[in-house]
Design a protein that fits this description.
Layout: E1 2-5, H1 14-22, E2 27-30, H2 40-53, H3 61-73
Parallel strand pairs: 1-2
Helix pairs in contact: 2-3
């Protein structure tokens, strides 16, 4: 069985490598650094986060809904 993950240090930590050594049928493959940007959802999320969320305080759920509506309408 193969597990495909991104590159955070937790995925390559000593405890993770030790556990994988104890289970030889499990193989770990890392996606290339920066490959997440090949996924169109990641690019959209970056734009959305910048347009709707960055630097804005939200007092309640309605504020978040309003910011989300404005950003997605663009």
């Amino acid at each position: 069985m193969w597990i495909v993950t991104d590159n955070p240090s937790s995925h390559n930590s000593l405890s993770t490598r030790t556990r994988l050594e104890d289970h030889p049928r499990i193989h770990h493959a890392f996606i290339p650094v920066g490959a997440c940007w090949l996924n169109l959802q990641e690019g959209w999320w970056r734009i959305f986060r910048k347009a709707a969320l960055t630097g804005r305080p939200f007092a309640n759920r309605d504020d978040i809904t309003y910011a989300t509506t404005l950003a997605t309408d663009q």
